[in-house]
Amino acid sequence: MDFQSLKSIEEPFTNSAFFDVTRCFLPLKRFRNLKIPDDFWLALSNYRDILEEFFKENYYYLRMYGSAREFAESLRSYQNFPLSHNPFFSRKIEPYYNAPTFYKSLKGEEFIQKSDVYALLYRILSKTLDFPQFQSHFKTPFDTYFICSILSDVIKYHEHRLFGTCEFVKYDEGLFIWIAEKYARLMDTEIKQYESKSPRMEKFRNDIKSINCQTGSHLFEMLFDNLTQDISIEIDWLFEEKVLKQDIPEYQEWLFRMFSLLNNPSLFLPEIMNSYPSVFLPLDSRNPNGGPVVVRVFEEERNEKFVMKSELFHAFSILYPRQQKPEPEIDVVTTIRYVDVLKKYKDRISKIEFIRVPIQRSKHAAVPIMTNFGDCCIPAADALFELLNRLIFCEQIFQKFKIEQWPLLKTSLSSLEQFFAPYHRSIYFITIIGTRKAEKLVMDQLEKSEKSDKMIVNNVRNAKKDGFTMQNLKNELANLGVTELFPEIQEYAEAVYSEVLDTKKEEFLRTCDLFDAVEMCLLICILKRFPNLQLFLHTQSACHRLPSLFCEYCTKTAKSGKFKNTTHCQLTLPNGSILCNNFKFFSAEEIKDNKMTYFIMDCKDSNKKVQQKKKNKKKGETTSEHLHSLSKFLNNFPDKKIYIRAIPTTSSLEYSDETRRLFAEEALEIIQILLKSRNSSISDNNEKIKNYKEKFKRKTRDTPTLNLAEFWFMLEEFDVDKTRITIVPDPIHELSLLKLTENLRNDTLNVIGPNGDMIMRKEQVVLHLFQIMVSEVDWNRKECQKSPNCWHLRRAMLIRIMRKFAESPDGDYVLLEIATFGVQLLKTEPYSKEHAMESTPLSRLENSNFDDMIPAEMFISGCKEFGLDDFLERSPKFLEFIQEEQSAPAWVCRVRFFYAFAFYLFHMDTYDLQDMVWKEVLLRQPICDKHRGTELEFSCQMLGTKSEEEEEENNESKCCSKCLRTSEMCNEAKKELKMTQNRLEKYEKKARRTEEVESQIREMEVEMKRMKKEMKEREVEVDNKNKENEDLKRKMLKLEAKDAKMQLAEKNHSISQNGLLEKITHLSDQLKFEKERNDVLQSEKIDELTAQLESQKEIVELMKLELQQNEERLNSEIREKQRGFEELRAALRIMSNENESIQRDNRNLRERIASVPEAPPTPTLPESLPDGPTHHRFALLGFQKIKDSLYNKKQLKQAKEMIEKLKSSSNLVEIHQIADYEYYQFEWNLLKYTKEVELNIQRIKETCDVSTVTPLPDIPEFSKRFVNLYWRIINNQPISSSEIEVSDSECFICTEEMTTDQKTLECEECKKVTHLKCASQWLKIHRSCPHCRREMLNPEEFPNLGQ
């Protein structure tokens, strides 16, 4: 078997698989418009012909994807990822269509995902069927399809154990070769057994002949009886939808052949998987050696490499079980750059295997990627492009909206920023569910807007055979109507047309290229209108995906200033918050006396809290005591934010995680505060805190720092609330840096330490020593009168002190006192004292502004005054450049002086000091763009000059190396400045957005308070109104009562005696009227009664007629029943014959079971299969036949028909009772018989042992007495009363037959007879007859004394 071709072979799509992949690949709206050809569902594997017809039928909807071949390639690449059958294909019997993917690790080893191992296993088993020795057993293509479908279903069942994981294993080709060879040997053995005509095989072949088409699936379900119901469902579907629709000749023989070929995999697959759990099973507690811990390194274009954060931390949790496992990320999967992983976690990744995984894409869709939790995701930039493509061509919203509706459209599309936010620092993924949420969110917003879905818009027209021109593209944009919403779109047509022309795949541009051009034009317009989405593409490194899009963020240079600064070292963040430090409220003496610690806070909080403290001032307590330290401040105001400052440790303008550090003392203080705030016992963490304090203990007078990664791990270790911490730049450092770039004095870049001491970086100390010594000491006279080596001794002392500071630990800050002491030591040195100068060219420059223009002659004279004549003579090109320039800014002259001194003082042995000094000099250059450009240009030109004498002297290599290194530093500075601007823009936008959210929250809180107050006022008003209403009600009731009394009084006074007489006369008249009316009613009733009598007579006559008709109808029914009785007689004869045949089969089966010997114990790992089918399968097949014969309850239906006919033939109650009793007995016996058959089937399936089979009860049938009675009644023969007398032949309690030799007990009241033993047990509890409930005594306890 050729494994190289096996890796890359493509499994042809079936029609249903092609349909499923197309449904997932295309947008839903476009997919619903497709037309399915009439013969689409008839083909099995000729999908290429079907594809051509399908594409031709739906060309209008699929033309944007190119040709049919290109569309098929897109589908193929889109579904080519591990476990693609899970989200794409609806049926598990579909084969594996994705080719196994092999990944190279960084060490060059080959890896494969565990789910792809199952795909490779399927290919091995299915391709083994193509061997020449097996081809004769596959007579039709359907045979191969059937076997492969069953194999796919079973393998996918075993594969489901990998769901929710994404694990990899080293690829061992030798293992799979061994699996293929072993399977081929077993298949060969199985084929030989099938071809042999052994008695067992012939017997099994004869048993299969009794299986019909409907029950054929049961045979294969028995083969995989240890699997779940899903396997049975898929096999049943395969038979119903595929097998039964095929015209298979010799169906039973075909079943026997297929069963024999599948008998081997049913045992082979579990054996292989259990033998190699590290290859086939997931890594868990049951499988601790599940393979190496692997993390994928995703490779994007432009050499972008990154890893999933959750996958990396999941690997850490496996290697280091104490670490908390990461939770699955919802919608968004974040990443970390691979470079950052190497820097931050270099001590934890030694046991992790990193494999290269390139991002794959098809046309208009990215190939899904599995997360470590089993979900599917795609890059966020691809999700945005796919969503915009659907809005452009499917929804056509940019054609339906007009210019006056732009605000509504803009509001709807702005909701995309929730999912495609520009503040992510690295590339990230969005899950498939997340992309659907984003699409639904946009569509819901668009549905709310006022747009007409019924509006008719133009679609993209087809291109000509010879392609289209740029003018055609502009005309097409106008035809679509997008120029109204985007008037500027045609400006981009030329650049887009050139790009499409360069990337065309055929000789002429096609319709699909026209779709691409229209899409690119619209995407550029959309991104220009939505800057946040353009910034999002920039942060995701996807700008190059639209070559015609000019990304201003990629070309933008760094802007001046990062933060706004005000007096008292305040720092204004981009979100508007003004930060200050607590030292601004105290003098230096107070800080020293109270031993205060430095911290940063919001100025608003500080002002409010000082005023609040003044109001609530207590005796003996100062108003500003809470500002002495961060812990005291948070004790009083625990809900405030915690700010911690980040200070740089390198001579770089880039504000990155690598260049920022935190003071160790401040970090430990914050951790202790957070531990206390969460009410956790600090004593539990005392040991850890003590260890960290010992680690960061000052071994010298330097101030130790730690990087952000260490701080993060400390927060994770102590498990504190990280959301309360905000890392900000140090206000004093930022202000000092800006001031340094705008003055020419020898100031230092200082920072206040945690305890109030002024500190500075070691690089700043080295620069300070250099600039003090070169600006205040005369280096002109290299030899003096006292010592001939004066100049060399001064240089050696300066280098020695600079070297001492340069060797300080990286990241530590030096006290300003120590740096000042070093300067004083140099100044008091005898040689420096003797050559000190009161005024030098550098000191005179300090009085100038940094942008004052200094003439070239003044700079040259300054060089001569410093004694730098040799430098000017050795650098004629440099001198020529200065003279041509005529004048330069003051700060440039200062840098040139330092360069000249560095040329003199530093040699090859002090190259590191020169590098350190020059970086600090570049750091102090002005931030203005014009000045920076001038300086960089100057540095590049200056460092490129050489003197003729240098080429002849031995110092030539030294100067060249200096120039080269300085040039590299300039280039690095350019890159750092660009990167700094990009990062600052991210921070500013993130901070601005945060501030907007906070301001909205504050406004909402104020609004809520106002609404609560209004609600309380309204409640008070409602209560008052309710009280007033109640008072009014009480008053109204009182008034109504008074009014009623007044009316009664008026009526009483108005009634007189005349009125009473009138009433009496009126009543007498009414009595007379009533008497007359009663007489009339009596006469009417008499008339009605006479009429009723007449109608009853007519009814009696009608009833007589009905009786005659009923008699005739009964006679006809009697004749019909007689015919039915004859039919029942025939049915009973058939049933009796069937019962006799079943009894014979049952006896034969018992004899066969008794004759079969016991099965030998099954070996754990059999090397070969038994000679033919095992005997327990014969027994199982026999019982299955009995169960199938009882499946439709045919016997019970026939019994029910007999009972109903018997009841209809006789009206005697005794006959009905006998019939009901016989039916209940028959039904109960049939149920017991069926249950016993099912229990025997279950026993054989579980144990595969025939000895566990229990004998079956007698076949259920009616009693002979009932059969005789039935035929006599049917034949209208006379029946005596003794024949229908109901006698108790069964016990009423246990329902078993009573024999003459058993003792019985008869009830004196109802004459019911039962077993004496059963009755005794009953009467011990109830003391009454079980039938009539009359009182009755137990004869064993109370015997009859008269007997």
From TrEMBL:
SUPFAM superfamilies, sorted: RING/U-box
UniProt KW NADP keyword: no
UniProt superkingdom: Eukaryota
MF annotations from Gene Ontology: zinc ion binding
Record-linked InterPro entries: DUF7809, Znf_RING, Znf_RING/FYVE/PHD
GO CC annotation terms, alphabetical: membrane raft
Keywords recorded for this protein, A-Z: Coiled coil, Metal-binding, Zinc, Zinc-finger
Domain RING-type per the UniProt entry, residue ranges: 1291-1333
Gene3D superfamilies with a match to the protein in the record: Zinc/RING finger domain, C3HC4 (zinc finger) (3.30.40.10)
Coiled coil ranges: 970-1152
UniProt record, GO biological process: innate immune response
Protein name according to UniProt: RING-type domain-containing protein
Organism: Caenorhabditis nigoni
